[in-house]
């Protein structure tokens, strides 16, 4: 790639608006390379509901529908899994999304005076 010399009125500036001019005004040659930064996939976190003996099943279903956008059928399946196994996965999300969902579940449970627990763990 050849660079043309800067116009006489521009002084030591280059074609990029004055950044990085060397003041020689001559021509330069070089290789233009395009580097692509390697983007790392964000860590994912599982959001888990924990069983307790006090939170009504219907409330858990409503939370799953509201916070996790589950259909009634999916919410029922997850709720029953939590009830039978003690813990159940609601979804897998990037850190900030998982954290927000855990907070929403916990806030909703407290507001309705239920001891429902929700946690997240790295996948």
Explain the overall architecture.
With 123 residues, this protein is an alpha+beta fold. The protein has a domain at 56-122: Ribosomal Protein L30, Chain: A (2-Layer Sandwich), CATH 3.30.1390.10. Mean pLDDT is 86; it is low at 13-18. It has a 3-stranded antiparallel β-sheet. 35% of the residues lie in helices and 17% in strands. It holds the Pfam family ClpS.
Mean pLDDT: 86
Quaternary organization: single chain
Physical arrangement of strands within the biggest beta sheet: 2-1-3
| Structural class by secondary-structure content | alpha+beta
Pattern of helices and strands: EHHEHE
Briefly say what this structure is:
With 123 residues, this protein is an alpha+beta fold. The chain has helices at residues 57-68, 72-85, 95-111; strands at 44-50, 87-94, 117-122.
Describe the structure using short key phrases.
single chain; 123 residues; alpha+beta; Ribosomal Protein L30, Chain: A; three-stranded antiparallel β-sheet; 35% helix
């Amino acid at each position: 790639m050849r660079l043309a010399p800067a116009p006489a009125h521009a002084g030591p500036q280059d074609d990029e608006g004055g950044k990085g001019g060397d003041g020689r005004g001559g021509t330069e040659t070089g290789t233009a390379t395009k580097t692509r930064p390697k983007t790392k996939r964000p860590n994912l976190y599982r959001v888990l509901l924990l069983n307790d003996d006090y939170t009504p099943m219907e409330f858990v279903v409503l939370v799953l529908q509201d916070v996790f956008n589950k259909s009634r059928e999916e919410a029922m399946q997850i709720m029953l899994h939590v009830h039978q196994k003690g813990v159940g996965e609601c979804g897998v999300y990037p850190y900030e999304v998982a954290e927000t969902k855990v907070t929403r579940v916990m806030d909703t449970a407290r507001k309705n005076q239920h001891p429902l627990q929700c946690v997240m763990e790295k996948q």
